[in-house]
Write a structure and sequence with these properties.
Blueprint (H helix, E strand, L loop, with lengths): L6 H9 L8 H4 L14 H4 L6 E2 L9 E9 L9 E9 L8 E5 L7 H8 L11 E5 L29 H19 L8 H14 L5 E6 L1 H12 L4 E7 L8 H23 L11 H17 L2 E2 L5 E2 L1 H11 L6 H14 L3 H7 L12 E2 L18 H12 L7 H18 L4 H9 L10 H5 L8 E8 L5 H11 L3 E9 L8 H13 L7 E3 L7
Parallel strand pairs: 4-5, 4-6, 6-7, 7-11, 11-12, 12-13
Antiparallel strand pairs: 1-2, 2-3, 3-5, 3-10, 8-9
Family: Belongs to the peptidase S33 family.
Protein name: Protease
InterPro entries: AB_hydrolase_1, AB_hydrolase_fold, Pept_S33_TAP-like_C, Serine_prot/Carboxylest_S33
Length: about 525
């Protein structure tokens, strides 16, 4: 799905505003076939991470940083390399190895996430070095960018009356993204990120991968299980993504889920004196729709010289709805907009509107000099949405032509609007952004099934606005007997941070190998004091 960052560290941040002497067998690298037909990756699997204290004023003192080097193109490992940023909290007890985290997105920068929200995972340091990373194209790891390309559609190019004009816009935006993202863009996507995970596993000294993935991170974990089944250790997928639905259907599911979450927020808001939409939930929901429409037709200026549109408002609300922890902050931000025309608090949920131009930071050619990682202050401000689009498009094989899209747009527009009068257009725009980009891989739909791995734990939350519970069930059936489902009968996106019951069961599995029975559940009553 078009997933967003996991809510655990985001909630805090938004609220606060190698030894080459090893043999190939010991390194965990499969031996080359006799005919030598597979590329030689031994130099990448011979690495060890050199850890040092993380630089930066916001970095915790006990957080260590490092990097691993991976091939830009796994089929041509001598054509160029990328450095990937890592960060870890050391194990406080006797370590059983490392536990890699992915916080979602796609496009979430794991180093910054771990620095901001590491307290959530300190219990896991009883048995693991807890490690976050910036995947290729994300954060400090050769970040992609779309420069000044807009992900919104001009009002004078209406989807229903002139779809071909809209698609010309989208293709121009895709060309601009390619210009600003450089050599990493054709090699972005989950299949390559999964191979990077295996290089990290070996560089960390682990025979098997222990992994905790949220939202999009569940897609990455499932792809790893398909690619490297014998190297799966203890693996948890929380907020399970779909492996089969096309982006068009994912967008509808996302719009419907966020509409339900918005209605829950509004019902909560009108009970508070500070709610800017009055005291009646029905009229308040209508007020939200009117506010979005008003800003789309007459945007307000921001402190950055840009216009704040209705779709910018939708983007901010969509981020805030992933956790109830953010509802009070969202209420105050909406009040500032409605009462004073002040957009600053809402922009805090999205990180801003526009992105700077720039070159291609972080790529190092095979004959290049030292470098690779980008300084944190050089990461483009649009890296998260640019990476989200790039990765989702790289993972999706559907590329209907302009005529097919034009024929379908009327139906799609109605379907999305029916799913959500607030989020429908926003989600439809996201779906269209793959037009003009190369066709994505078939691997995830065709090959990620019936994995022969150790047992893995899948957590699905009934009221999840981003990854509906049915995706957990469908993905578990697709993965086969290895998948064990934990049913979190609660609200919010993912369960680890919001449910003490889920937290306990996930930690018990990761630390001690204690799996709950398949189909067991956690209920809201289990999280009460």
């Amino acid at each position: 799905m078009l997933a967003k960052l996991s809510t655990r560290s985001m909630a805090r941040r938004r609220a606060m505003i190698a030894a080459t002497g090893l043999t190939l067998a010991a390194a965990g690298l499969p031996a080359l076939p006799a005919n030598g037909s597979e590329p030689d990756l031994s130099r990448f699997y011979g690495q060890k991470v050199a850890w040092a204290r993380c630089e930066g004023v916001e970095m915790p003192e006990d957080l260590q940083c490092g990097k691993v080097t991976v091939p830009l193109d796994y089929t041509k490992p001598h054509a160029g390399t990328l450095d990937l940023a890592l960060a870890r909290y050391r194990a406080t007890g006797k370590p059983r190895g490392s536990l890699l985290l992915n916080f979602g997105g796609p496009g979430g920068a794991g180093v910054a996430e771990l620095a901001a929200g590491g307290d959530e995972f300190m219990g896991l340091t009883e048995g693991y070095d807890v490690v976050g990373f910036d995947p290729r194209g994300v954060g400090r790891s050769s970040p992609v960018s779309c420069g000044d390309a807009s992900t919104e559609l001009d009002e004078d190019a209406d989807l229903r009356t002139d779809p071909h004009a809209v698609l010309r816009q989208v293709r121009q935006a895709a060309d601009t993204c390619a210009k600003h993202s450089g050599p990493v863009l054709p090699h972005i996507g989950t299949v390559n990120a999964s191979r990077d995970l295996d290089v990290m596993r070996q560089a960390l000294g682990d025979k098997k991968l222990n992994y905790l993935g949220f939202s999009y991170g569940t897609r990455l974990g499932a792809v790893y299980a398909a690619q490297f089944p014998k190297r799966v250790g203890r693996l948890v997928l929380d907020g399970v993504d779909t492996l089969t639905e096309p982006l068009s259907e994912q967008g509808v599911a996302g719009a419907a889920g966020q509409q339900r979450a918005l209605e829950d927020f509004v019902t909560w808001c009108v009970k508070d004196i500070g709610c800017p939409f009055g005291t009646d939930a029905r009229s308040a929901r209508e007020d939200v729709v009117r506010l979005v429409e008003s800003l789309d037709s007459d945007p307000v200026a921001t402190d950055f010289g840009e216009e704040f549109t209705g779709q910018d408002l939708v983007g901010a609300i969509s981020q805030a709805l992933y956790s109830k922890e953010l509802w009070p902050a969202l209420e105050r931000a909406l009040a500032s907009l409605v009462e004073d025309g002040d957009t600053r608090a809402l922009l805090g949920f999205t990180g801003g509107i526009s992105a700077p131009g720039g070159g291609v930071p972080g790529f190092r050619a095979a004959t290049g000099t030292d470098g690779g990682l980008v300084d944190q202050d050089e990461v483009p401000v649009d890296n998260l949405p640019a990476a989200l689009m790039a990765i989702n498009c790289a993972d999706d094989p559907d590329r209907p032509g302009a005529d097919r899209i034009a024929r379908d747009l009327g139906r799609l527009h109605a379907t999305y609007e029916d799913a959500s009068p607030v989020f429908g257009r926003y989600r439809l725009t996201e779906y269209l952004m793959c037009y003009g980009r190369p066709r994505g891989t078939d691997f995830i739909r065709e090959k990620v099934r019936d994995v022969r791995t150790a047992k893995m734990l899948l957590v699905g939350t009934r009221g999840d606005p981003a990854t509906p519970y049915r995706w957990t069930v469908e993905t578990a059936e697709r993965l086969g007997d290895a998948a064990v489902v934990l049913d979190n009968r609660s609200e919010g996106h993912t369960g680890y941070a919001s449910s003490r019951c889920v937290h306990r069961k996930v930690d018990a599995f990761l630390l001690y190998g204690s799996l709950p029975p398949d189909g067991s559940s956690c209920g809201p009553e289990e999280d009460r004091d």
